[in-house]
Amino acid sequence: MSSSAATATGIGASVLRKEDLRFITGNGRYTDDLNQPGQSYAVFLRSPHARARIIGIDTREALKVPGVFAVLTGADMAADGLGDLPCGWEVKQKDGSDMVRAPHPPLAINVVNYVGEPYGVVIAATRAAARQGAEAVMTDFEEREPVVDLATARDSAAIHDGVPGNLAYDWELGDRAATEAALASAAHVTRLDLTNNRLIPNAMEPRAALGVYDRSGDEYTLYTTSQNPHLERLVLSAFVQIAPEHKLRVIAPDVGGGFGSKIFVYAEETTVVWAARKVGRPVKWTADRSESFLADAHGRDHVTHAELGLDADGNFVALKVETTANLGAYLSTFGSSVPTYLYGTLLAGQYRTPNIHVEVHGVYTNTCPVDAYRGAGRPEATYVVERIVETAARELGQDPAALRRRNMIRPEQFPYETPVALIYDTGNYEASLDRALELVDYAGFPARRAASEAAGRKRGIGFACYIEACGLAPSQLAIQLGAGVGLYESGEIRVNPTGSVTVFTGSHSHGQGHETTFAQVVSDRFGIPFENVEVVHGDTGRVEFGLGTYGSRSLAVGGSALVKAADKLIVKGRRIAAHMLEADVDAVAFEDGQFVVRDSNQSLAFGEVAFAAYVPTNYPTDLEPGFSEKAFYDPQNFTYPAGTHIAEVEVDADTGVVTLVNFVAVDDFGHVINPMIVDGQVHGGVAQGAGQALLEHGIYDDYGQLVTGSYMDYCMPRADDVPDFVVDTTVTPCTHNPLGVKGCGEAGAIGSPAAIMNAVTDAVGSNDVSMPATPEKIWRALAG
Amino acid sequence: MYQFNYHRPATMAEAVALYGEAEDGLYLSGGQTLIPTLKQRLAAPSDLIDLSGIDALKGIKVEDGVVRVGAFTRHAEVARSPEIRKALPVLAALAGHIGDAQVRNMGTLGGSVANSDPAADYPAAVIGLGATLYTQDRDIAADDYFQDLFETALTPGEILTRIDFPIPDRAAYRKFPNPASRYAVVGVLVADFDGTIRVGVTGAGPCAFRATALEEALARSFSPDAVRSVEVPEAGFNSDLHASAEYRANLVRVMAERAVGDILAG
Ligand SMILES: Cc1cc2nc3c(=O)[nH]c(=O)nc-3n(C[C@H](O)[C@H](O)[C@H](O)COP(=O)(O)OP(=O)(O)OC[C@H]3O[C@@H](n4cnc5c(N)ncnc54)[C@H](O)[C@@H]3O)c2cc1C
User: Fold this and answer.
1) Closest residue in chain A to residue B258, using alpha carbons only
2) Buried residues in A723-733 as b, exposed as e (16+ CB within 10 A)
3) B210 bridge partner residues
4) Pick the CATH number of A34-144+204-257+262-295 from 3.40.50.880, 3.40.50.11540, 2.40.40.20, 3.90.1170.50
5) So what's the ipTM on this one?
6) pLDDT digit string (tens) for A361-405?
7) What pTM does this model have?
8) Domain topology for A488-633
9) Which of A736, A781, B238, B252 is 20 to 30 A from A528 in CA distance terms?
10) Chain A closest-CA separation from residue B169 CA (Å)
């Protein structure tokens, strides 16, 4: 193990992704690729109405369809004693009361509350028979007036009994009186109304689940598309009560994208694992794309009014925000936390704004539940802060970069406590702003604008200096704030007798490249070849525990757990080496994969020590054999990635078409383990952000029918919708985790919508453009 | 999909006979519209009669100032045909921007024109070039062919066999793609036949049509300014999530103006 080999694959190296060979050669193993002997197929009965009472379900014809084994309904599930799908975050209302939870049975009973809501399932020998059976079920619905419009939902009839005004919660954070007073005395107040459009996640792999029940051991196995298999098991066991945890194994094999939508515990996997026992056969379900549109938890969907006060010098003195957040028909697994703790807490942005108050009304509507989607709360917060700051700069005739710079928290002010409950540990916001201005050639913008004008196009530039909080933490604080689970991560490192290493992580990779990055971290730590490290994830039967992958937490939290486990091994290795080399433990150091006795030429390689641990001939008598360790890592704080994104757009005034012509992202993710993977995460995130800003919109009509239910109408960003991104990083290492890393998975989607919309409104010369900035909207804005 | 019987006849006569015998038959061409419809269970034919085995529906020929294209010619074949690129480059270019590579490798001229989706591209060429459409029984002038939303002059069982496109002196097609589906929100084909101008518009209305006011203005003065002077009425235009009728009317003018610009730029 030469050190040059270690650096070519160690921390900081752009190692090609291990997992890509199997993915690009079609050898990935996704849930739908897995089959079990005697397997049956599930097709769900889904509500065609946004709101209705179920009068009766006649299954007689369906049961006559050849191959149909069973038709099961919500009532059957309830009769078996299964519980509701829980929402895992208790949000306290501003009057101190608990949020109002609407009952959420996995399969609807008596009432349905959104189009696509499952209320039953047909299980058959083939998918075609199951579908035929589903069409033969006669369900008698009594339609009721749906509540669809977010703006008027609070004044509409209650969807759920006992939830007046459809209000799940009224939540606030910050000092209202001080904020209002500061606004009242501000030299200038900028006011802005914003909508944050509903997005539909669209992972490339649709959700799927395969439930298996083994009668001999009374054991269940669930293969499913989860970002979070241990949480899935915990919820299905403790809340839904399908089986005790030790009788339920959840395996999330290769998963093709999630963006949050696969964190949650859904009706479908709950149903197949329950039904597997009921019908006495494995039960498989794979969503078709139409089902994904209707029933994968959606994202965003806010309306907001914001006010920013500035003093005569342009210092921000107060920010007041009021948001109505659409939670959909039910509280999804983390739905309550997204527009509150992941949103309100981020409203300080990168700035020293001394007074901030935010009030959020979380409302139920007859639409698909809304939950975390790439960025979750932080894109919405960034959109508010960065749109209103840009607007203030325009109103005051100030350079938008200069106004931001004036208000930024300075490097010497860290740790910095914001008025909205966070303590930023470190950062250097001006450094990324400066680098971004340089990369975009800010000074050259007027000339580029003139060139565009000469070619008949309008050009605009827009900034977003975002902050995000990743690696949600620490557990005790989060639980006090309502989290239903801890927020640590577990890791285990098993060194095999021959010195190769198997790493187990409770985080889950579904596109992020953990098999590569985590192998880099561990091989670097041990000074062993990268190829000798295998990363295992996504199986409750193999990994002790875990909380999965979301919120850009995997490396900062899961990676840190591995470092902790590695360090335990090094401590043990030093004891073994000291014994073997007849030296004092304190004299043994571990460097470049060698246990060395200081000031001597004596050393043992990592592999030699591992071997000795399993073949203990010359071994300390008071030390256990074996060479594996596990660790749980509970972060002390969030990490705070931050950066500057700058977008340039051109607008064709005749058609209203907006072209994103230039995009610069300079991000501070702390130390970077694999720059290539980080660039890829930023590219993907920015493309999704461009989708939100320019293309994507989940639209329901007045009847609660999803109008954008296919790719004919829901516009995903394509390669030719985005320019070559210019990405770079600045580095202030995270101060509280061993790798000094912050997380990079969401930043692209967090900064880019605001940057792009600031550029669009700059080009158009009107702030009155909502996302997505579609051609007709722009054409109308220009027509004035 | 529901169950159906599948046939692959080798001749026109066989195909027509199969259609006559079927309880509820449908012709299958490239399948790019029909197969998704079947998969979504929006159609339940008793029999699918696949036209891909009929040689009489295939082939490209340029003769007598006309480009003859068999109905079973894939979009990709039209796009890369050396004869068409030489004689009628506007048609090759139009075909090259239909859907994506997979769609172009499967979808056919006949399927597209028979289907007459209001947002399809080919209808703009059929109208704008004043094509003649052939079936097993008769020929139909372009101006008589498109009738309403998904409604054409074809009668049940009639098979489009070939379309003849007259070759203009100069022509250009401009499409404003739907950002999501990339079908035409509006597509305009402008052709100049020795001073006689034809303007075929797709996407804007329930089916493709001639924009006669634009034709007259361009006959007077073949310039973008002439286009700009014309009021395009929005009455009867499609209005949906992606574009209102008013916006479509604007796009007709803008696309026509740009097509004229393309022609003048040579
Ligand atoms: C993703 C996607 C994107 C697309 N984008 C575009 C686009 O940008 N522009 C565009 O114009 N189109 C687009 N299309 C449609 C595509 O061009 C189809 O190929 C075309 O509309 C139908 O042709 P087909 O050969 O596939 O016909 P099929 O799907 O096989 O048939 C369509 C209909 O026509 C009937 N039919 C077929 N052939 C004949 C015949 N010879 N005589 C009589 N009836 C017949 C069939 O019975 C059926 O009812 C797109 C399709 C897809 C799937």
Assistant:
1) A654
2) bebebbbbebb
3) B200
4) 3.90.1170.50
5) 0.95
6) 999 999 999 999 999 999 999 999 999 999 999 999 999 999 999
7) 0.97
8) Aldehyde Oxidoreductase; domain 4 (3.30.365)
9) A736
10) 28
